[in-house]
Design brief:
Blueprint lengths: L5 E13 L9 E5 L3 H13 L7 E5 L6 E17 L13 E12 L4 E14 L4 H7 L1
Length: 138
């Protein structure tokens, strides 16, 4: 496989995760892309693979006034999700720290052709944060 088609992001924090393809969001993850180096890596990957320019959504937390840049990417139907300490898909969500593999691929079907991308592997390093415990700690 062409190495430029693969992007590995290490120790990124998730903002959102949905593994159910039938949900209203579809199967996808949202990565905290506030770090300019991470955004630059993603932009270069998109350019190298003739993908559309990545869309980074800016979110401002009204309570803390912190700004977060978010990057969303869909999950492949065959995504492999594993982790330390037997973490699995239920441990994905806000605050989870993961390594992510994104693959770009060419498609040509009856409707269209082009290049797309999806997450093919996720390794969970730290599980999602328990919102109830976070509230107690504040």
């Amino acid at each position: 496989m062409d190495d430029t088609k693969i992007l590995t992001l290490k120790h990124v924090e998730l903002i959102f995760a949905e593994t159910n393809a039938d949900s209203k969001y579809g199967a996808s993850i949202t990565i905290d892309a506030t770090d300019p180096e991470l955004r630059d890596t993603i932009i270069k990957y998109h350019k190298a693979n003739n993908l559309p320019e990545p869309k980074f959504k800016e979110y401002v937390n009204e309570r803390t006034n912190e700004t977060t840049m978010q990057y969303n990417v869909k999950l492949a139907k065959f995504v492999d999700i594993k982790g330390k300490e037997n973490y699995g898909p239920s441990e994905l969500g806000r605050g989870a720290v993961v390594n992510v593999v994104i693959n770009a691929y060419d498609y040509d079907n009856n409707f269209n052709k082009g290049t797309s991308k999806s997450v093919t592997a996720i390794f969970i390093i730290e599980p999602k944060k328990n919102n109830a415990m976070d509230l107690i700690a504040e």
